[in-house]
Amino acid sequence: MEVLEIIKVIILGIVQGITEWLPVSSTGHLILFDAFLQLNESELFVNTFFVVIQFGSILAVIFLYFRKLNPFSRSKDLVARHETINLWKKVIVAIIPAAILGLLFDDTIDAMFYNPVTVAVMLIVYGILFIVIENRHRFPYYRNLEQLDYKTAFLIGCFQSLALIPGTSRSGTTIVGALLLGTARPVAAEFSFFMAIPTMLGASALKLLKAGLAFTTAEWMLLLLGSVVSFVVSVFAIKFLMSYIQQHDFKVFGYYRIILGILLLLYFVVL
């Protein structure tokens, strides 16, 4: 295992950990960084790596929200346990659209849209949407997760299915959808985090199975390293986002997406 490859994996793990939870498209950033870093591995491994290191990001959510997500916590009374179970039911309802579409069309979507131009366009489109929606965002109807009903959870899940197109950002689409449907910003962000647990665990497992698990020991070590780095960085990224949106809106991420999308177009199309 070359030292240079280890450094590349660490950098990509950092990028994944930051961009998975901020609504700026982890795929877009990984494509951009990989264009310069270029992992010296097979195409099959690289494609699998970009999905599997999300596992570390998911562990960060479980680590930070374990008590809130655990219905069997001894510190919870019957009411709190019931609310936690209902939260998981809402999450399950919400992931149905993306799960069905992902199983049916994942390979087709990757073949059609997994390219820098699509990523750049989606970055710009959703960047504009963030700014427009925030400019019109009014007093939220859903101010906590307990108020969120199953219909709204399902509709948020429909927005998440749009993230099958690279560059849209899974957290970006769910947050945009949740804001449109009347949730408070912290509710939109947290529900997006929780939806990611089954969604991304399933995507990682599916990608590994499709790859056939036929990786060398060195490649497995790189996958583990990328996941560990992603976990550590994700912990800080999630804490930052939840602190930031207590006092600010999401427009800064919209402007960032637009700028990044334009730079990607210039680099991959014009230059």
Give an overview in words.
There is one protein chain. The chain is mostly helical. The chain has one domain. Helix content is 77%, strand content 0%. The protein has 12 helices and no strands. Helix 4 packs across helix 10.
Query: Which residue ranges are poorly predicted, with pLDDT under 50 across at least 5 consecutive positions?
Result: none
Alpha plus pi helix count: 12
Structural domain tally: 1
- Arithmetic mean of pLDDT: 88
Q: Which percent range describes the beta-strand content?
A: under 5%
- The radius of gyration over CA amounts to 18 Å
Task: Tell me about the largest β-sheet.
Answer: none
Helix content: over 70%
- The succession of helices and strands, N to C, reads HHHHHHHHHHHH
What class would the helix/strand composition place it in? mainly alpha
User: Given the C-alpha coordinates, what overall shape results?
Assistant: globular
- Count of extended strands: 0
Distance between the termini: 34 Å
Question: What attributes does this structure have?
Answer:
271 residues; mainly alpha; 12 helices; 0% strand
Write the layout of secondary structure elements.
Layout: H1 3-19, H2 26-37, H3 43-52, H4 54-64, H5 66-69, H6 78-113, H7 116-136, H8 150-161, H9 170-180, H10 185-211, H11 217-244, H12 251-270
Helix pairs in contact: 1-2, 1-11, 2-7, 3-10, 4-10, 4-11, 6-8, 6-10, 7-9, 7-12, 8-9, 9-10
Short description:
With 271 residues, the chain is mainly α.
